[in-house]
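note to self — DONT lose this again. spent like an hour looking for the file last time. sequence + predicted structure for the chain T wanted, 137 res
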Amino acid sequence: MASRLNPYIAFDGAAREAMEFYQGVFGGDLVLNTFGEFGAPDSPDADKIMHSQLETPSGYTLMASDVPEGMEFTPGTNVSVSLSGDDSDELHAYWDKLADGGTIGVPLEKQMWGDEFGMCVDRFGTAWMVNITAPPS
């Protein structure tokens, strides 16, 4: 799979409604996953969207999630650029360059869903998310 670059939007509890709206606008296939489905069934965030992805017939990809309790939500700064794919070397190299001189919010490491994932803000203030798909087991 080639790496992809797309917007990732954070919402304060409205990710499901917003992504269903965007599906109505752009069409396509929408996948919604909650925090409860990814290992936090008893958390206050269990029904919130941990990750959603809309793949449109025009080739657009839009991703979004709800901000979990304890994390700040600031409208106007709620969009990140997402890099994802399965080429670990390529994506690690991008991560190293993007994080250099920036701020790491989540270290690039294996997560509960099996992929490697990290979040950083580069030295210019752009928020980045990197997800490296786990190899098939």
